[in-house]
Design a protein that fits this description.
This protein has one domain. It is built from four helices and no strands. α3 packs antiparallel against α4. This is Gas vesicle protein GvpG. InterPro entries: GvpG. It comes from Microcystis aeruginosa G11-04. Pfam families: GvpG (PF05120).
């Protein structure tokens, strides 16, 4: 414990940098797997509706938003694939 306090000026910033790096990595993983996450959110929304946690109106609104995001992401990926194949 005493050594931890003694080395805190050195290990503190290093620990902070490691923490920041982990948070950046987590964020990158989330954005990279955005399509999978949108499908998981859609499934979670369906479960909430089935269990009665949200109303049908709220379910339909959120479902439409998620489906539009999934569609936009798929169109973006298709456009990228098409532009890559034309090169």
């Amino acid at each position: 414990m005493f050594l931890d306090l003694l080395f805190l000026p050195v290990t503190g910033p290093i620990g902070g940098l490691i923490w920041i790096g982990e948070k950046i990595q987590e964020r990158a993983d989330i954005e990279y797997d955005e399509s999978e996450n949108l499908h998981k959110l859609l499934l979670s929304l369906q479960l909430d509706y089935d269990m009665g946690n949200i109303s049908e109106e709220e379910f339909e609104i959120q479902e439409e938003e998620l489906l539009l995001k999934i569609q936009a992401l798929e169109e973006e990926e298709a456009a990228e694939d098409q532009s890559e194949s034309s090169l």
